[in-house]
């Protein structure tokens, strides 16, 4: 079967971009320390006098030094997700006013990513690290870990706090044991 030139060109560009991302993106992350952040679970809260609780679940809200907040709704089983692992994630994203802007459930297919390599917002990279397969977590992502001042098209306004409910369907460990 003969491929159209534009399709062949797109495949070539995609392969080149993937090679550069895997080669130089991983090296850049190694030197900037971003990999270390994605390899470990977000830190537990320091001894705060009054623990914030999630209004929906009544479970504790954990705030990381970066400003990410998360609530473990269900703790999964098995090894924790770390940088370089292949994840299949179902999710639903909403704005603070409850407006849904995206959902893998609506598409009927989980989103696949390589933690610490696939380009997702920083709040996802930090928030998925440390989760286990079958785990469900609510991520409350401040603008600086989401789309910031730019927003995202007509769907996500500038400086929006994003609320994701994420569920790790599966974790496939990186063959090299992480990046």
Describe the protein.
- It is a single chain.
- The protein has 179 residues and is an alpha+beta fold.
- The protein has one domain (33-172): Chitinase A, domain 3, CATH 3.10.50.40.
- It has helices at 5-32, 34-39, 104-107, 122-128, and strands at 62-63, 69-74, 77-80, 86-95, 100-103, 111-114, 132-133, 136-141, 162-172.
- The strands form two sheets. Strands 1, 2, 4, 5, 6, 8 and 9 form a seven-stranded antiparallel β-sheet that branches. The chain has a two-stranded antiparallel sheet with strand order 3-7.
- The model is unreliable at 18-41 (pLDDT under 50).
Q: What is the number of independent domains?
A: 1
* Total beta strand runs: 9
Note the total helix count: 4
CA-based gyration radius: 18 Å
**What is the name of the CATH class?**
Alpha Beta
Estimated helix fraction: 25-40%
Percentage of residues in DSSP E strands: 25-35%
Enumerate the spans where pLDDT stays under 50 for 5 or more consecutive residues: 18-41
Shape-level CATH architecture: Roll
The N- to C-terminal Cα distance equals 38 Å
Report the principal-axis shape. Answer: globular
Q: How confident is the prediction overall: mean pLDDT? A: 81
The H/E string reads: HHEEEEEHEHEEE
Outline the biggest β-sheet: 7 strands, antiparallel
Give the structural class.
alpha+beta
Question: CATH topology, anyone?
Answer: Chitinase A, domain 3
């Amino acid at each position: 079967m003969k491929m159209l030139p534009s399709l062949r060109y797109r495949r070539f560009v995609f392969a080149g971009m993937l090679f550069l991302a895997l080669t130089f993106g991983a090296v850049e992350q190694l030197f900037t320390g971003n990999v270390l952040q994605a390899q470990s679970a977000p830190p537990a809260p320091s001894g705060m006098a009054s623990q914030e609780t999630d209004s929906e679940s009544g479970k504790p809200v954990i705030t990381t030094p970066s400003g990410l907040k998360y609530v473990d709704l269900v703790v999964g089983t098995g090894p924790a997700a770390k940088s370089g692992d292949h994840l299949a994630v179902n999710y639903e994203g909403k704005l603070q006013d409850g407006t849904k802007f995206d959902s893998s459930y609506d598409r009927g297919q989980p989103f696949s990513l390589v933690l610490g390599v696939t380009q997702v917002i920083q709040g996802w990279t930090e928030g998925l690290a440390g989760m286990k397969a079958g785990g469900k977590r609510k991520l409350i992502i401040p603008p600086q870990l989401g789309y910031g001042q730019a927003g995202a098209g007509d769907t996500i306004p500038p400086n929006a706090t994003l609320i994701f409910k994420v569920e790790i369907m599966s974790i496939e460990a990186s063959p090299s044991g992480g990046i």
